[in-house]
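> tool_call: predict_assembly(chains=two)
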Amino acid sequence: NAGVTQTPKFRILKIGQSMTLQCTQDMNHNYMYWYRQDPGMGLKLIYYSVGAGITDKGEVPNGYNVSRSTTEDFPLRLELAAPSQTSVYFCASSYGGQGPYNEQFFGPGTRLTVL
Amino acid sequence: DAKTTQPPSMDCAEGRAANLPCNHSTISGNEYVYWYRQIHSQGPQYIIHGLKNNETNEMASLIITEDRKSSTLILPHATLRDTAVYYCIVRGDQTGANNLFFGTGTRLTVIP
């Protein structure tokens, strides 16, 4: 199993450009998440999905969009990049459920710089 | 979800036990304690979790006090590869976001 994979690893965007961060998991997990991590800070949830066709906002959703057409894929879209979106983005997945089934598996991250 | 308090940094000599404390004084009865770590800006990695009883796996041990207001993660024989930021997270048995609230964690440095 590859686990959770993310592409690209690095990206530099100009202000106002758009891009999609890709995330794929091969563990047949129902739940998928997007987090961002600013320097020296913990992770903040952007969006999450509890299954194909179902998504919902997290703590910091403004400026982002997501879709979940398949169990495996959960892309994150930035429409009009701003310097405040410079961050490291992590995708994660979990079996879901409750209590002991909350273990989340994280991808390696995408380092995005907006200039 | 209950808030947690961790020291910002700790050092540990290689080969010794690393004991990382976490306070969660507002934890409620159905909330679990989770520990994750993040090595040098990689994605966080699950270590262990517990509810009431002490837990042990191949990576670490988790000791939860009887009143559940604090816990300690123990790495029995720390190696240089254990240098990382360790996050203590408390969350309930709930549906919905299922997400984890990461604070700033404890930066553990293992010294040769």
